[in-house]
Amino acid sequence: MAWEPDLVIGMDIGTTYSGYACLFKDEFRSNPTNIWMHKWSQFSYKTKTCVLLKKNGELHSFGERAEKKFSREFNEDRDLAYDNWLFYNNFKMVLYRENFTAADDCGNRYKAEDYFSRHTPLKDVMSKFIQGLKEDCFQRFCKQRNIQINEDKIRWVITVPAIWNEDAKSVMRTAAEMAGIPGDQLVLALEPEAAAVSYFYLPHEERAAMGGLGHVGDKFMIIDLGGGTVDISAVEVISVSPKKQLKEIIGANGGAWGSQRINDAFAQVCRDVFKDNNGQSVFKDCKKADLLKMENLFEAEKLKITDKDDEEWIEIHLPIDMRDSILKDVRRYPHKYDEYFKIMQCYYS
Ligand SMILES: Nc1ncnc2c1ncn2[C@@H]1O[C@H](COP(=O)(O)OP(=O)(O)OP(=O)(O)O)[C@@H](O)[C@H]1O
Ligand SMILES: [Mg+2]
């Protein structure tokens, strides 16, 4: 008899946020949307895509916990943090490069970069991150349901951007296997395809609100606006019963146009605007931890912006050392206050 899973565990590893979800096969039959997910915060089923390793490469933590721990260690003693820790974020985008080959990950071309710009093969970092998600998922799910999971009966699904090439996908597969996920129990699913399939299982009202699509012959487009990439694909419904079947009608499209670009542009504006008289960025000596903090503050404000907003300004309270760097510059050259103000105004008008 063909192998059948008892439990499906899905992992969505995003550029900025990641999460996991579990569903027993029996529960899927009675209620396919009865999916168990851990709520990481009041608003989110995902945590930050970042990972903290000990110097020997062992996993310490991942997600927001890793970021907090590393920031604390860094603020206490930068040199000790350098000696003891490896902290990685924004590593998924390494896999989305033109002409990326799996050999590049082991060679010197493309690697994950830690906070202090030290390089490690991406698959090693990705595998530690997957290991963190996997262990965390087991621990929380088993505890909540008070069950033991038979690992041989799990179907693992990891979603990947449709626009990745085959080599990038194979690095993800290797990373998952290194994290202890058996290759023959693992499926890599394309992110927009997973979204299209899940649409079929939404409650009737939700589907109606989205146009009630889902009849044979209906065609629809899925646009996944992520942190790193934008993935666009289009499918046609081929059959709904007894099996639900979709056909791809346009190959995956998209690019590195995710929302992280807005954060990068903000950081660039800050570097361009706040320059000393020698043309050097006022932020050049700022701690990376402060730059990270500033990005987090900007990110939080960005998420509050809506299309109904008529407020033109957002307010960010800079970390104290950054504020001092700017103030030092302004005190030295008082005319610059007006200059800075004018430049910022013209960037935002
Ligand atoms: N209201 C908003 N305005 C602008 N950007 C937003 C808003 N809400 C979320 N974002 C951005 O969306 C991104 C997170 O989306 P998502 O979780 O889909 O990305 P991801 O899965 O981490 O990335 P990817 O799928 O590209 O690898 C973040 O960069 C976040 O800043
Ligand atoms: Mg995503």
UniProtKB/TrEMBL annotation:
Keywords: ATP-binding, Nucleotide-binding
GO terms of molecular function: ATP binding
Pfam families per record: HSP70
Top-level lineage group: Eukaryota
InterPro entries: ATPase_NBD, Hsp_70_fam
SUPFAM superfamilies: Actin-like ATPase domain (SSF53067)
Signal peptide: none
Entry's family note: Belongs to the heat shock protein 70 family.
Annotated protein name in UniProt: Heat shock 70 kDa protein 12B
Provenance organism: Sinanodonta woodiana (Chinese pond mussel)
Lineage: Eukaryota, Metazoa, Spiralia, Lophotrochozoa, Mollusca
